[in-house]
Input
Amino acid sequence: MRYRLPLAVFLILIIFLAIGLTLDPREVPSPFIGKPAPEFALPELADSTKTLNPRELKGRVFLLNVWASWCVSCRQEHPVLLDLAKRNIVPLYGLNYKDERTSAQRWLEQFGDPYVASGFDADGRVGINWGVYGVPETFVVDREGVIRYKQTGPLTPEILENKLLPLIRQLQGSPT
Amino acid sequence: MMAELGHLALIMALLVALLQAVFPLLGASQGVPVWMAVGRAAGKAQFLLLAISFTCLVASFVNHDFSVRYVAEHSNSALPLYYRISATWGAHEGSMLLWALIMGLWTFAVTWFSRGLSEEFLARVLGVMGLISVGILLFILLTSNPFERLMPSPVDGNDLNPLLQDFGMTIHPPMLYMGYVGLSVAFSFAIAALLGGSLDSAWARWSRPWTLVAWSFLTFGIVMGSWWAYYELGWGGWWFWDPVENASFMPWLVATALIHSLAATEKRGAFKAWTVLLAIFAFSLSLLGTFLVRSGVLTSVHAFASDPKRGLFILMLLAIVVGGSLLLYALRAPTIRDTARYTLLSKENLLLLNNVLLVTAAASILLGTLYPLVLDALKLGKISVGSPYFASVFGPLMTPVFLLAGIAPMFAWREADLGRLFWRIRWIALGSLTLGVATTALFWNLKDIKTLAGLSTAFWLAGSAAFSLWNRVRLRGSAWAGLRSQSLSVYGMTLAHLGIAVFLTGVVLSGGYSEEKVVRLTPGESVALADYAIVLKGVTEVQGPNYVAREGDFRVLRKGRETAELKPQKRIYQVQRNTMTEAAIDPGLTRDLYVALGEPLDQGAWTVRAYYKPFIRWIWLGGLLMMAGGACAAADRRYRIASVARETVISGDLAERGA
Output
């Protein structure tokens, strides 16, 4: 029996890999879509005396990007965010998730800071409330403070142009 | 013409590989010597055809043949000759062709160095290698043909990714593939032994040099990759637990376990079934790594252009090769009998423990790498597993491996006298702890338990490696006679274990005492780092062959005296409009100074990143020592006189020496 164990484990592995092929690791449904964005009040990354609170953003469509300096895919997505920030279409806020303040600040200095402000979520409590599975994630929140879309994994220029921006324009166009 | 010739040679290589697979395997099972003899000739012919095919692709790059799609996508008329050649393996199609070429090279090497093998065994080995070649060549021809034409052809090419225009990237993939593919030899030996039912210590002795050479290449490839990531990616780190890095590290861990368990199998006839399984695992993990990298099932910074058709193909290949060999193992392994007798406290059991720990480490990396995929497949959500997981799992698993590596070489086979052993090593143990405490207190901070433990372990490894060598040497009359009488395997082991000590020192000190500063500098200003001052003199414009760059002129001052000039660049590659940061490094045995230009600010000021990295070079130096150890052990004389007739004499002799 014990000689067959490796084969059995391998067969299970192959099944998972086969299912994995049919899935896109970047596409994730979220139970939070259509629900009000969870409240939080976090110290800002750059200045811990200020707080970031989504309630104060009500009335505007905004993006919340979950990131961390330890997250490799965040580096990949970063140029897209910098580009988006330059275009001044929609305010982009950051949620700095399970990170250290100094390394997060250094990361932004090194790669550029696209965020209006980043909340500093050291213990990941807020991330849990927002249903963060993995970093990076990007949430679109409408004027009523309702989450309308969530992107898991790095944003690409295609996803930004084809999914996020049309949705944002539509949300910005609709009357409050 | 060149591309068509290359394509034709590739198709012919596939046909020859088919011959190499079918006839020797059938011949070995039916006992037909003529059929078995096909293997040797076909293996050589296959290598020749692959070399022609590969040369054709290189020629297409050198001659700027942009009508070949692969060349157009990854080269440019302004790309220097050197990078045009290395661009051949800069992306998916070409790197798979390199994989196949290296498979051919290993096959050729097996036909060349196989005089000691029986015809039947050699036929099976070459047959299995032929089967693997068939799979890879089919994959290239059906899904990833590098010779595809592009009509109408573009005037100029899209250029090579600037990250890959670098010396490190030129040699990292070939070395890594030499390692990955080299493990197929140990795999084929294991399968051949299972097929023929001849799992004896002769089989282990034949496998050892091949495994050692492949392991050395793999070590070198990983070291090169880590070094490249350090200076080229500009992240200042040396390992990121990225899925692609993990894909190379898992086979390395299992291959490390394999070279140790092969020793026990060869010398004591122990763990035969386990050793075979490890040989299967090591190569399977290489293939799995290929699948993970090329299929796009995981997100990674190294993402190759992924294509579901390719993913499915490699998955099927993986299922056939690994599933088939594990099935064979399930059928044949129950008949394997270990002849060795040993007690609880023996070198055999310590080697087994080392194996269990290394394989557990590999399994936990596999778990961390595949966990996101498994959860996703079960619809349990999506997560990403990052370095916190790996770092916390890895430390506890590796600490006992390091401690064992010190003591295990001094254990006797069969049965060890624990009391006497501990008495003998008491000074080494005490000394390494004292030295660890002393150096930590003297140069760093005594409250830093991590450094204390790390350095003590490093001293322990180095001290015990030297002590165990001395124990062997002093049995002879003089030191010179003692040193000369040691086999190269002993020196190899000593070097490799010293390598771990050096590596560990680098990891601990660069991890604990690096300094990083990001500052705004105008020309004339300086930044202080450790006991250095780095002054920015100015920033000038520089023209490269296919880029323009702004180059900073930095001077490193130590106690007011200039010790080095650093010229980091910020390049803009003209074709892809990519910005690349070329850091400048002042290397040193005890520290690196690392300067990179950030963004230009107003009034001629720049953001500048500067790192002080103590002992970081020791990480790669340790890796190189391990590689040298592997190569040294592989060159041991007794592998060259390996013939079946002498087998009993040799193994008896070795058991006595307890090497």
